Amino acid sequence: MNDRNKQRIGADGGEAWAAAAARLKEERISKLxxxxxxxxxxxxxxxxxxxxxxxxxxxxxxxxxxxSEETRGVRLQLELLKPELILQEHQxxxxxxxxxxxxxxEPGEAAQADTAEAKANLEAAxxxxxxxxxxxxxxxxxxxxxxxxxxxxxTGGGPGIM
Length: 162
Hints:
Layout: H1 3-9, H2 15-31, H3 35-43, H4 63-66, H5 72-89, E1 95-97, H6 116-124, H7 127-144, E2 152-154
Parallel strand pairs: 1-2
């Protein structure tokens, strides 16, 4: 390590800096208010023309703002973040996602389609329905061997092969 780097991170190789950064992070986290506290504080504000104006609303509780076309990217990020946090909370390390046709009926069931050709195609694809179930069962059985933390089968939960 050269002298310039020692000046930047300290002669101890950065251990003091790392400890200080950890303390700073702990202090910063403990001083941050939760979203619930932010909302409580917002509701305690006096009712004035300024505070009742939509521009004064907290962005994350402003439905008009969150549903605007301009926040589509943020909403998409939230749609990805939410299940990720839920999986982390349950300590799921890997998932197995099935993609398929939500309109493919169970074998022997009638398909819902606009044209006879589309209906016939969907019903013909139903041969894959049972195959998808067998494969999902095998993956789920493997997941059980890993404390249900690896190879967790995820799906939209609706009808069809998904």
